[in-house]
Request: fold
Amino acid sequence: MNMTLEELTNKLKKKKIRLSYQRIKILEYINNHRIHPTVDQIYNDLRKEVPTLSKTTVYNTLNTLADSNLVKVITIGDNEARYDVTIKNHGHFKCESCGIIFDFNIDFNSFKIDGLSNFQINQKDIYFKGLCPKCIKKDASE
Amino acid sequence: MNMTLEELTNKLKKKKIRLSYQRIKILEYINNHRIHPTVDQIYNDLRKEVPTLSKTTVYNTLNTLADSNLVKVITIGDNEARYDVTIKNHGHFKCESCGIIFDFNIDFNSFKIDGLSNFQINQKDIYFKGLCPKCIKKDASE
DNA sequence: TAATTAATTTGTAATCGTTACAATATAGTA
DNA sequence: TACTATATTGTAACGATTACAAATTAATTA
Reply:
């Protein structure tokens, strides 16, 4: 799961994104912390290693990476966006109690849809909500 | 598609939501304007009929109606929420060019998912993005 | 390696959607 | 009709995100 510096820089080079310390660190963070972090989480964690980091840079960089499809923006109903590595065939489940976002596998080709002929589909987002096993137990014991 | 005043008031009564002119008007608007409107659209359109209407009331009412499942909040990546009638088995497609949100039919039971055993699923949101037929043509002719 | 130029980072201020709050008005009930 | 709880309203506050300009840095060329 953890990626080397070389792998990360290659990812950026392939997309013709200019290398910078901040960009590499942010891309590294997204790849190595698969917790669907918010901008604030990324900013506060990385600030320990990169003291000069600005929150604007985090926003700019994430937008750049998202435009190039190197990270994925998750907008699962919250007020703040969350960020994820780009991996195919997975949906997101948000626990309404603890707020944790879980990945799950879903076969996007199994969908039986009707009403999108002649549409060009570029992106499919699957967001589920409910209770995770831990919170179901917790609720039951109260 | 258009609902009578009686049908609307019954919907509210069933959910034990106190009747008010504003609530009925907003619920009526959502039911009769299936364009996935924003708060601003609802507010500006209804202000013509209900001059004293406050935007806060639109927000409050929509939250109340959403809590009771009488309307559905669509957060398809925009900065602003959109609102829809509550109808089962449909997904939302947003055209990245013109911004229009289209409904499409999708069989939620056809999903082959893996990784959510022991999870309690309360809500499933399907958001697709891409280009609608009209915008595909427009782009091609430029 | 040094100089050049274009792009990036940074901090602050602005923006915009949404919510908090307190005063006024209204709905449901007795 | 009077009472009480709830809803509406307008303003102010909030929080996530973006705009902007100055300082810094990356890639390029000599």
